[in-house]
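Sequence in, structure out. Go.
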Amino acid sequence: MARYTGPVCKMCRREGEKLFLKGERCFSAKCAFERRGYPPGQHGQNRRLKMSNYGIQLREKQKIRRVYGLLERQFHNTYEKASRERGVTGENMLARLESRLDNVVHRLGMAPSLRAARQLVSHDHFEVNGRPVNIPSYRLRPGDVVRVREGSPMRSDADSQVHNSMRRIHEGRTVPYLSLDKARMEGTYLQIPKREEIPVSGREQLVVELYSR
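Output:
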């Protein structure tokens, strides 16, 4: 499975806003964006560029792609599939991204970051509707139940990453299209999310305009 393995704090600095890619660290004083809120590189502090329309579209695409931790081909394939569906292409694309198993695990609070969620799914710690699934890009459908696998050490170990992450989740913190049962360590994908329910600040229409060139 192809994935980005470089430093992620540089992504936030490059996009000029927090993308919350490192879990709890992003809320602490150790956050690199809080300490160095300028673009990375030797001339980052003095770089003041006036971007063209293409540049603005490109930055918006890069930001959304990085929020979901996808490489270019994966992200573009998601756009292509969304463009063939009925409705608004940009909203369809975000809904598809939100329905990925790794993203749902992260949104449920079972992992501190999307990267951690992807690793837990790949290591076979979760099941969907009672069947083990280790594919992070697995697309959930309304009514699907995601649960920490019965035989997983993450379930029995009180100090596991899943337990520690779920302790930080408070009531009402999950998004409206998911429900969480902390006692059973499971969550349900209730419905396809509406745009206003998706906690991503990106302007997806600019991504559509970029790919439509």
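Check: The longest helix spans residues 53-67. DSSP finds ten helices and five strands in the chain.
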